[in-house]
Specification:
The protein is mainly alpha-helical and 181 residues long. The chain has a domain at 3-73: Orthogonal Bundle (434 Repressor (Amino-terminal Domain)). It has helices spanning 3-14, 18-25, 29-37, 44-53, 59-64, 100-106, 114-117, and strands spanning 167-170, 176-179. A two-stranded antiparallel ribbon has the order 1-2. The longest helix is centred in the first third of the chain and has 12 residues, at 3-14. The protein starts with a helix and ends with a strand.
Length: 181
């Protein structure tokens, strides 16, 4: 089945007329006609618009024709329940990703002062960095920087003693300006 035929099948699946389908996926009506007739091949943008409007259609089927058209046609995979025993007292329960509040309840150090949970400065894994001395000069936004005046460092030995007669600047739109000193 060609890509054009698969798109015709998607239009048929949607239950819309080709004009309504074009409006639904926000493309020109003529492009639907050109694609379904086989005159033009659909662009990637065209296919992405179909997929974003109909997320139940599988990419593989839409692009290559492999597999089933809809996700619901696939055999369902049973959910697997994962259990991890936490203690002898508590029975196994399904695990899920923790949310913020369960993390707060499980965290023994939550709400502790920073000094209680921070490692000491004598810890061999960390090194102590002394604060910067006050002798360093701080720059504030209100201070002006020195004016930097670039100097022309490129000098040609061939053009010494030759004066400029005219400078012409050409613009992309075909216009130009001429300057004479």
């Amino acid at each position: 089945m060609s890509l054009n035929e698969r798109i015709s099948k998607v239009i048929e699946y949607s239950g819309l007329t080709p004009s309504e389908f074009a409006d639904e996926i926000d493309v020109q009506r003529s492009s639907i006609s050109h694609v379904t007739s086989g005159r033009n091949k659909p662009s990637l943008e065209f296919i992405i618009k179909i997929k974003s409007r109909f997320p139940e259609i599988l990419w593989d089927w839409l692009v290559t024709g492999d597999g089933q058209m809809l996700k619901s046609e696939l055999p369902e995979v049973p959910e697997i329940e994962v259990t991890i025993p936490e203690s002898n007292e508590e029975k196994s329960k399904p695990t899920s990703l923790p949310d913020l509040f369960t993390m707060m309840n499980d965290d023994e150090d939550f709400g502790a002062e920073e000094s209680e949970t921070m490692p000491s400065k004598e810890s061999p894994a960390e090194s102590f960095i002394p604060p910067q001395g006050k002798s360093e000069e701080k720059i504030s936004n209100s201070q002006r920087l020195e004016n930097y005046i670039p100097t022309n460092t490129i000098q040609s030995t061939e053009n010494k003693g030759v004066a400029i007669k005219r400078i012409v600047i050409f613009y992309e739109n075909g216009k130009f300006e001429s300057f004479e000193p």
